[in-house]
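Appendix B. Raw example, untouched.
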Amino acid sequence: MTSKDWILVGLIVLYAAATLGLTELFRRKMKAAAVILILSLFTFPLWAEHRDSWFEWAKILSVLLPTALLNFARIANFEDRKGKVWELLKGPWLLWFFYGMLFVNITEAALRDWQLGFYGNAIAGFALNATIPFAPKFWRFDRRERGDLIVDFPMGWCLLYTTWNACFLFGSIPDEFAGGLAILLAAEFYSLVRRSDLYIMGRVYTLALFVLQLGCFDVLPGMDSSHWANPVLANYWGLANAALGFGYILWYNWQMHTGRCDRVFRNPKTAPLGEPAPATRQAAAKR
């Protein structure tokens, strides 16, 4: 590796740490996050300078608007706000909405991979869609600590998503790969510390910060990774992801078939209110 490559690796680590820090700030300070997200929408005059088409502007909006909606839904559920709008934000439809947004986001990227000839990675994306824990059983807003959107993702799903999405960026948008990898690593931090139930929070906020940065500043100086482009490596990487996806589908369906999913998927700290935590149920079953 050249000195330029090592500098880029260092910048990836710094960018990941910065976005993780901001994500934690947004998780802990919902109202401050709401203000920042609303203000971020007023940066749109800058997007035309750094993004090439209306489609890319729409992609920024398609991330920022749902993130703002999620933030207000957190406030509505955690503080049990009253009123027609607040009650609407507490409805189960919103969980299905975010489920659908995740499904569509993965599908778009998988179809792009297929179009570019990275068939293995496209198959891995479809495997991810087939194994998203369904709403509302495995999706809910936590009302005990910070109003987080909790999704009972097993660690395996989070790891597969990270390697799949990184491969997608590497193959289709190599100049943005370094920044995209950084935010993927920041979100993956939660699953690595045994909080994969918070993975969706990390992914949503880090992605919002990333697209906002691209709209306002484009690729940051020193973080253009286009010289790393390697279609052959991207193809083999995608094939490896497809194999992992196939194995994960088998494991996931076995957990669902045997009914072990409630215990295996859920974190005891954020088990649904009124339902025994997985560890408690397991202990009771042994008596």
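End of appendix B.
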